[in-house]
Design goal:
By secondary structure, this protein is mostly beta strands. The protein folds into two domains: 81 residues, 2-Layer Sandwich (Alpha-Beta Plaits), CATH 3.30.70; 49 residues, Aspartate carbamoyltransferase regulatory subunit, C-terminal domain (SH3 type barrels), CATH 2.30.30. The protein has three helices and nine strands; from the N terminus they run E-H-E-E-H-E-E-E-H-E-E-E. The strands form two sheets. Strands 2-3-1-4-5 form a five-stranded antiparallel beta sheet, covered by helices on one side. Strands 6-7-8-9 form a four-stranded antiparallel beta sheet, with no helix packed on it. Strand 2 and strand 3 form a beta hairpin. The longest helix has 8 residues. The chain is elongated, with a radius of gyration of 17 Å. It binds zinc ion. The site of zinc ion has 8 residues, from loops.
Length: 152
């Protein structure tokens, strides 16, 4: 008997697996993906690692860059990235936290220039273990969580 896939497989593109539920939509927002092709989102699969389940995201006909996939580490450091070519996994990619992050994180300090004056958001990695980033404007250090993702 062939295994019934709950999310159909893709010929070419990028598969992001092991995203903790319900962060798949946040991953799409981090990547800035809009209506540029077919995406399949699976939410709430059984997972040994994640007590609330895992999400899977398949992006057809788009090979994400390393800069793009590293952003995923901000909220889903255990996510796995497979690049698919001609129906085969052509690359199993490791993700590492980006050393700096522009635009996608909002500073939690309400008095920061990025919030008061619309300065461009810019954070530097401070601590990999705790996923702490420091704002370049107000210098507040903060542990990243999904709520810091700026709303466009
Ligand atoms: Zn700031």
């Amino acid at each position: 008997m062939t295994r019934a896939y709950k999310v159909y497989s893709i010929e070419n593109g990028t598969v992001i697996d092991h995203i903790p539920t319900p962060l798949a939509l946040k991953v799409i927002s981090i990547l800035g993906l809009g209506s540029e092709g077919i995406m399949t989102i699976g939410i709430g699969f059984n997972s040994r690692k994640h007590p609330y389940g895992k999400d899977i995201l398949k992006i057809e006909n788009r090979e994400l860059s390393h800069d793009e996939t590293n952003k995923i580490a901000l909220i889903a450091p255990d996510a796995t990235i497979n690049i698919i070519k001609n129906g085969e996994v052509s690359e199993k990619r490791q993700i590492t936290l980006p050393s700096e992050v522009r635009d996608i994180l909002s500073c939690p300090n309400p008095n920061c220039a990025t919030n008061m004056l619309g300065a461009r958001k810019h954070f530097m990695l401070e601590n990999k273990e705790t996923v702490t980033y420091r704002c370049r404007y107000c210098e507040r250090a903060t542990v990243v969580n999904a709520d810091m993702l700026s709303k466009k």
